[in-house]
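lol so apparently i was supposed to do this last week
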Amino acid sequence: MNPPSAIRVGGEVDAHCNKCDMNLAHTILAMVGTAIKRVQCNTCHSQHMFRGAQPLQKATSFAAPRKSSPSSSSGPARPRTPKAEVVVIGFDELLKGKDLTKAKKYSIRETYKVDEVIDHPTFGFGIVSAVRVDKVDITFKADVKTLVHGKGDVAQKPSFNQLHPGAKPAAPAEGEAAAPTPETPES
Ligand SMILES: [Zn+2]
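anyway here it is w/ zinc ion bound
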């Protein structure tokens, strides 16, 4: 059984040319035994490995490997961030139930109650979530802060002596009672 006389180096064979994207006559460039290894397209003159003629119905098998190639639809990795949105909306909705026009400006001299809306100069609007003796937990958009409140006029009195003019500074340590205070100016 001899191979067709055309199947020899320099002969012609039909093969699929990727460049031309069709089955075309190719010139055989290299063979191993009776197997054609390398061919050159007679139409575009590109050289490539011999794959044999590709019946049309197999054309899809040529397209299949493109699955692994990057698809044009793979956009930049910029996924929407619904999670962060949810948190924001949650807080905003919390505030929606409140009358922001009645929000109290935060001041440690004020006394707050749970569920009151606070307008803090740094943290923005917040809602009092817990009240202790002299502290309040306020839920702000970014965080929950524990702030002082109910200090009355203390905030305006920077020192103990000014608040209680006649009083001694708190409990001097033993031995220091008789000593002059460091603040006493020399005469
Ligand atoms: Zn070609």
